[in-house]
Amino acid sequence: MAATNSKSRDSAQRGARGQVLSRLDRWHSYRQHHRATLKSSTVKILREPLQSLLTVLVIAIALTLPAALYLGVENIRQLSGGVDASAQISVFVKKGARESALEALGEKLESLSGVASVSYISAQMAVDEFEALSGFGSALEYLDENPLPDSFLVQPLLVSDAPRLVTEIRQLNLVDDVQLDLEWLQRLDALLDMGRKLVLALGAALGLGVILVVGNTIRLAIQSRRDEITVVKLVGGTDAYVRRPFLYSGLLFGIFGAMVAALMLTALRFWLAGPVDKLALLYQSQFSITGLGLGGVITLLLIGGTIGLIGAWLAVGQHLRNIKPR
Questions:
Q1: What's the pLDDT band for 303 if we cut at 50, 70, 90?
Q2: Which domains does the chain have, with CATH numbers?
C-alpha cells in the first residue's frame, strides 16, 4: 500500500514537472516567435525602401504638425507666465508732493496685503528713461517743466490680487491715478486656450489620417501575401499567428515615423533658436525656445507606435477574415 502511494506521488510530481516544463517551452517558443516576427517585419520594411520611406514620411509629417503647434502654444504659455509674474501696478502721484509724503505713501503701499514689492520712480528718473528709450528726447527741451509725475511700481504677489489692490490704492492720499492693463493678458490666455483646442482637433484629424495610411499599407501587404496566408491557415495557423507580422509592421511604421518627426522638430527648434534669442535680447528677456525634451520624444514615440498599431489592427481585422482556405 505504501509502495502504491509512493508511486502515485512520484507520478503526480512528474506530471507537475511536465506541466511546468510544457508551459516554459510554450513561453520560450512564444518569445522566439515574437523575436523572429519582429526581425522579419523589419527586414521586409527595409527591402521596400521607397514605399516604406514614403509611408514613414507621411506619418512623420502628420505627427510633426500638431506637435509643432503644441510646442508653439507651450512656448507662448511659458512666455506669458513670465509676463504674468512681472505684471505691475503703476501708481502715479499728484504733482508737488513732498519727499516725506512720498516716503509715507511708499510705506503704506508696502503694508498692503498681497504686495510683493514696491519701487519708487522719481519724475527725473522717468524723464531720463523716456529720453533714453523713446528717441524723442530732443522734444523735451521745448517744455517748461517736467510733465511726468513721481510714481510707484507695485508688484502683486498674485495677478489675481491686482484688481483688489487697484481699488485700495485709489483710496490713498496723494494718488492721482492707478493703471493696470490686464486685458491683453486675458486675450492672450483666450488665444492659448483656442490654440490648445486647435492642437487637439488637428492631432485627432491627422491621427486618423495616419491610421488610414498605415491601414492602406498593411492592406497592400496582406494582398501581396494572400497565398502565403492561405497556406499558413491550411496547415493550422491561427488568426493571431497570421496577424502578428502585420501588427509589428504597423508598430514599426509608427515608431519610425515618430523618430523622423522628432528629428524634424529638433531641426526646427535649432533653426528658430537664433532669431528667437536675438528677439529676446532686443526686449531684454531671458526667454529661450524649448523643444520636445526626452519626455516629449518618448511620448511622441508612444503616440506614433500606438497609432500605427491601431491602423494595422483595423486593417488586418477587416481583410484577414476575407482570406479563407478552400
A1: very high
A2: 34-83+186-320 (no CATH), 88-181 (3.30.70.3040)
